[in-house]
Design brief:
Distance between the termini: 58 Å
Structural class: alpha+beta
Radius of gyration: 27 Å
Strand order of the largest sheet: 1-9-10-20-19-11
Number of strands: 26
Amino acid sequence: MPELLGTASFPSGDLLLIDFGLLRTWSGDRPPLVREGHAPQHVVERANAAADFEIVGPQAAEAARAVNLAAVKGRYGFDLPADGELLTSAVARTGVDASVRRVERMPHLARVRALLDDEPSAEVPFHGAWAVAVRGVPGGPLRVLGERMDPDGPDRGRWRSVWVGCADGVVAESVECGYVLVDEARLLFADATALTAWRTDDPADGLFDLAFWGRDADEVAARVPVAPSTADDERRWTDLSSEEVRARHEELEALRDGGLTFAFDLRPHDDHFQVLRRMRSSPAGSGTVEVGGAPMTGWFTTWGDGAFPVYRDLAADGTLLRVRVELGAPEIVVRQRRFERLWFGDLAKMAIVSARVAQDGEPVRWLYREHAEREQDSGWRVFAGDESQEYADDSRNAVLMPLRELLRLDGELESLFDEPHGAAFERAETGFVPVPRV
């Protein structure tokens, strides 16, 4: 059964799906410049010196489709080197009747509108990330709904898909809109125009929270003059004025400089804070806030970061029924299984590896698996094959390595690591072959 995550309205008719943790780099209707201090100085200078371009001419659309550049969306190239050579050369190589002209730097909202003037949906790049925009969404308010993965499967509790319901009807066609990039494990359905009013690092009430956590958090709490509240494995002060938060911040910095190990986070009561606060207290991990006169709903992806496919679900007559992000898409599930296996599963277990392989860079030529007495021991023993018995018997010539690190050296080993205890392999001209254990 679908779950209700919240509501969203789209008075402009243009929906934007975006990782709202990245909204500090979203320019709205302002020039798309990176502010000083938000990145290393050389990155700021390079980003702010970039330019935007349009592909023009009788065959502009054909050229745009043929150009294989990530910065090109529709007929436009965004955030490119100012000389234009990269895009000009790419268009010339297509051999069609089109050229490139430089245009005034386009704020991110202007990019949404320009791209949607040509297509009903588009990926919208902004400072190395990208969102997905869709035109023709009813004003609303509309329900934001989600469906979980199989409750009996390994991904129970995670979202399979989340969507904005636009109309009732039977889905006859699903049209891919592109992929939305997630870097902070959260997403937001928002009206593209209303989002220009989003407040980042600018608390509406002038107040802040300040949280800390980590190995020495208890000792930090014993030293600060005011005991912060505790929740979710962190300690925090809430509703601090700017003067109070500055004093607490300086105290924490001094304690960390003094050798205590912990992390801390300043949280202004901006729109990002408000929606996160609602998300953390919601069974659905979602929260709705009003920005620019329009409600917007954010939620945790439950899959972490990645690029997730977005679809327009249409009725047989072309009516837009849903705008849907497929969080549990097959490629996402495969990636998650791989991640879990590498970092928490069998490939995270340790092997005893000869220093000839681990340190001298020799290829693996012989390996065997014995019964492991410890949970984190895979049982694999890995050698270059030219070690003497005396060398192998000296523990100083052995290195503990996770199996995943061995795969960086030789990906062919992965299929062997599924073999049971007692297996042994030797490298031959055609690859690894099983051999009797001596």
